[in-house]
From TrEMBL:
Protein name, entry field: Alpha/beta hydrolase
Entry keyword set: Hydrolase
Source organism: Clostridium aminobutyricum
Keyword field contains Hydrolase: yes
GO molecular function: hydrolase activity
Entry annotated with the keyword Hydrolase: yes
SUPFAM superfamilies to which the protein is assigned, alphabetical: alpha/beta-Hydrolases
Location of the Serine aminopeptidase S33 domain: 13-228
Superkingdom in the source lineage: Bacteria
């Protein structure tokens, strides 16, 4: 896991975790909106982009690395942690393991129900079609499904060339098999849950489950938006929503 960060470490620290198949570059517009008020850290999750040589093992493994980083660099607690998709699952895992590791957390498009048959379908499918990931036309279809803006496509495509077959399989298995732990109810963090109104049913169901499991959490349903669209396509709105949440809870 590689950690990018803005320069002013005297400001409150926010950690932003990207989604699967993306990297820190997908968060740069949000960083620009936040960096005058916060010290922003954008980790590159194992197996992605510049960290493509480091095999992605699991959500739990990534959460452990993030906890170690926070313990080493911030005395065990930061102002906020935010994650999209698998980044949100990693955030949830961190919160489940350490109840007081952050004052705030933002969970966008987090899947917390295991998808039946993930292992049976994923491994043979990704072994068979791994070569498609390297094809530009296929990458364009994937980017569109992930709501990656057109001006980010080239970076997305170049990073897709770096991901290993095993990392891709592990990411998909870990994402599809993730189940919410009962220990999430112990978190002392103030939580904002974001889900797109036009996301598939299991994603909206996951958001409701998080809302019910985490006491006093807040659920925001992004009108007419798909998976990850809030932060990827509307970073200014995302930053405004997050700062409004901080203000309401302070």
């Amino acid at each position: 896991m590689i950690f990018k960060e803005t320069s002013n470490k005297k400001l409150p620290t926010i950690i932003l975790l990207h989604g699967g198949g993306l990297s820190f570059w997908s968060l740069q517009s949000i960083v620009e909106q936040l960096q005058s008020e916060f010290h922003v850290v954008t980790p590159i999750i194992d197996g992605h982009g510049e960290d493509g040589d480091e095999e992605f093992i699991s959500i739990q493994n990534s959460a452990g690395k993030l906890i170690d980083y926070i313990d080493t660099n911030y005395n065990g607690k930061v102002f906020a942690i935010s994650g999209l998709s698998i980044g949100a699952q990693i955030t949830i895992e961190v919160l489940s393991q350490r109840a007081d590791i952050t004052q705030y957390a933002i969970l966008e498009s987090a899947l917390v129900y295991p998808i039946k048959g993930t292992a049976i379908m994923t491994v043979p499918t990704y072994k068979l079609f791994y070569g498609l990931v390297k094809r530009r036309w296929f990458s364009k279809l994937q980017a569109k499904s992930l709501c990656v803006p057109a001006d980010m496509f080239e970076q997305y495509y170049q990073d897709s060339l770096k991901i290993s077959k095993q990392s891709l399989i592990n990411i998909t298995l870990s994402n599809g098999n993730y189940n919410l732990k009962s220990s999430i109810t112990n978190t002392k963090s103030k939580i904002l849950i974001i889900v797109g109104e036009n996301e598939i049913g299991i994603m909206r169901k996951s958001a409701q489950r998080l809302r019910e499991a985490i006491k006093d959490s807040e659920l925001y349903i992004a009108p007419a938006m798909k998976h990850g669209e809030m932060s990827l396509v509307y970073p200014k709105k995302y930053a405004e929503l997050v700062k409004l949440f901080f203000g309401k809870c302070s």
